[in-house]
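Hello again,

I reread your note about wanting to compare the complex against the isolated chains. To keep things tidy I'm splitting this into two emails, and this first one only covers the full assembly. Below are the input lines as submitted, including protein chains and any nucleic acid or small-molecule components. They are followed by the predicted structure of everything together. The single-chain runs will come separately.
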Amino acid sequence: MSKNILSDSRDSLLNSLRKEITVYFPDELEDYSHGMSHTKRVCKIVEIIHEKEGGDLLVLSVAALLHDIARVHEEIGECINHAIKGGELAKEILSKYGLSDNIIDQIVYYIINHRSNQKGETLESKILRDADKLDCLGAISISRIIASSLQSRQYSRPIYDPLIPLNGCETASSLHYIILLIEKYKKGEIFLTETANTIARERIEIMSGFAENFKKELYI
Ligand SMILES: [Fe+2]
Ligand SMILES: [Fe+2]
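Full-complex prediction:
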């Protein structure tokens, strides 16, 4: 099969899946941090890492697209772990698309493990985990953290709480959490691919600059 036919059939599969999964991202529960906007960013980051690191683009693209389909179930308390529930839903969805059992099993495995702190066993597993985590860094991260503080029941908190020291409780405010993420990353490389580490370093610089300026404008 030529490369063009492969990429046409991949695009057609992804288009069908994009339409099918809209039901898992209902408007009233749209969440900038974990909703469809996050999924679209993760899909793009996966492609960027894949360009440098390689891996199976079909498996990666589908896993990225479906990785958070059960997030809303977790938000409303219908499941405890959206990664596991997402794997179950993905298996049901993908069984209708004529993919081999082997491909479906790989995609389901990557979805179930997308939050795992253990090192991924395959390149695709590492790339999906890195892409998901990269969306928690940089200018997007700052927007996500502040949006979650205001939007999400789970992560509701003030933008800044002057009563709690900045090296105190990391969940006290958006600024506290941004500083926690910067420190966490600076303690060690937390990404599994070199491409993700390179992107992460740039994004941490952006966050550090934001935190420093925020503190400067608060005169603290
Ligand atoms: Fe997730
Ligand atoms: Fe995610």
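For quick reference: The mean pLDDT is 89.

B.
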